[in-house]
Amino acid sequence: MKKMKNKLWFSLFVILMLISTTCFAASVSSDDATLTLVENNVCTIQVTDFVQFEKSLIEFDETNKEFTIQLEITNTAEEVFPEPTEIFLVIDNSLSMDDEVSPDVTRLATVTNSAKTLASQLLENENVSLGVVSFSTGDEEGTITDASLLLTPSHDVEEVTASIDSIASGELGPRTNIDAGLTLANQNFSEDCQSKYIVLLTDGVPNTAVGGPTQTYSGETATKTRATLQNITEEGVHIFSLMTGVVDIEEPSTGISYKTLAEEIFGTPEEPTVGKFYYITDDEIEQTVSETILADITNVADSTIHNLNIYDYFPQEIIDNFDFSYVTSPNLGTVSAEINVEDRYIVWHIDSLAPGQSGSLTYKLSLKSTINSEIDKQILPTNEKVEITSEDIVSEDGSHTVSSTVSPQVQVNLPEETPTPPVNTVDNTVANTIIPQTGTNNFPMIFIGIVAIVATIVGVRFYQLRKNVK
């Protein structure tokens, strides 16, 4: 008997749930519905100091009951090498560069290998070309011939690499004419190039200059070399000077330390004569050339954001009542083919966003032909939230996530029911009492009536079962 009672009550519950669901979630045609824009809110997120995100409604079509949303993310940091750029590597090939800095590894080998790494990284930018000059002294010491032009600016990484390798395998000169190396490089920039750099890699204080005395460290040699650095800089060339292996001991002919002699020309790393000056030991060559100088030239060590994920979450009402389709694919990265129905989002992934880069995509939301009547006159946010994640994001809660719930808002309006006009003539077909009509206005009476009928049937059946048991 108890089991039978439970079955009866369960049946009643199921029947009532079906009736309730059917009545409350009625589907209706959207043919006569209207779609209006309530709030054209723009969702903006400051992802980092230099990365900005914006989600906006860019087109609203009231006739076709659809609208277009754009997602856009921009790295506002200054673009690296936005115009054609030429960089000369000016490399010392004097005898002292043949000194070993580790077992069976010379200073020249370390410098040239690091220079090749620097070159390959710089040439990843399509606007960059590299030239190569070597310098020491030759048969006409104290002239421009103390330097050799190995390659005019080229974007071919193989040509640049081969030119650098030729220094390591070539003949070394006895002394150091930095003035000749700088002058020859400056003479071979393209006339129309506006962005110019020189990277000077040397292990010695110059002891000769163009047109000056030879085998002297201070005095006129220092003055000429310093003046050349300054004059080239005034012409708009950026100079990065690296000096390695110069110990802080006394130079015999002058009684002045090599470090002090170098500072007469280049200044100090903290206060350089021009550009940047790196005074380092041999064990710092690789890192300084291939990492530090690269970061200083490009000036974007912290301006690229990596592994970006942009999640655009949708309310259930939007998913149920609007068709989703892409208008344009992202110009950077990849995006979900469709909305993830379980989690209610699309995700846009970008591997890296460099300075000056901008990515965007657009999608359309169109009112379905059949919609849920309960969204009538509701103000619907077009998205629930936007959430952006990256390990490069520094958020206050430590989650590497930023988000916003700001969203454009729309409204769907269904037509009002037209009331039945009053009847002025007597008609025997007209009932004396009001007959319940279909429609949302009579829903409470219909629902109460159905529930009462079902309850009565169940009650009668329950009474009969009890009577039979007795």
Number of strands: 25
Identify the CATH homologous superfamily of the largest domain: von Willebrand factor, type A domain
Radius of gyration: 40 Å
CATH architecture annotation of the largest domain: 3-Layer(aba) Sandwich
Helicity level: 25-40%
Question: How would you sum up the global shape?
Answer: elongated
Proportion of strand residues: 25-35%
| Helix run count | 9
| Average pLDDT figure | 87
Q: In terms of per-residue confidence, which ranges show pLDDT below 50 for 5 or more consecutive residues?
A: 16-24, 434-441
Major beta sheet, strand line-up: 10-9-6-11-12-15
What is the domain tally? 3
In CATH's first tier, which class of the largest domain applies?
Answer: Alpha Beta
Structural class: alpha+beta
Biggest sheet architecture:
6 strands, mixed
Ends distance: 11 Å
Task: Write up this protein.
The protein has nine helices and 25 strands. It is of the alpha+beta class. It folds into three domains: 33-77 and 310-413, Sandwich (Immunoglobulin-like), CATH 2.60.40.2110; 85-298, von Willebrand factor, type A domain (Rossmann fold, 3-Layer(aba) Sandwich); 440-469. The chain has a six-stranded mixed β-sheet with strand order 10-9-6-11-12-15, with helices on both faces. A five-stranded antiparallel β-sheet has the order 3-4-5-20-17. Helix 4 runs parallel beside helix 5. Residues 16-24 and 434-441 have low confidence and may be disordered.
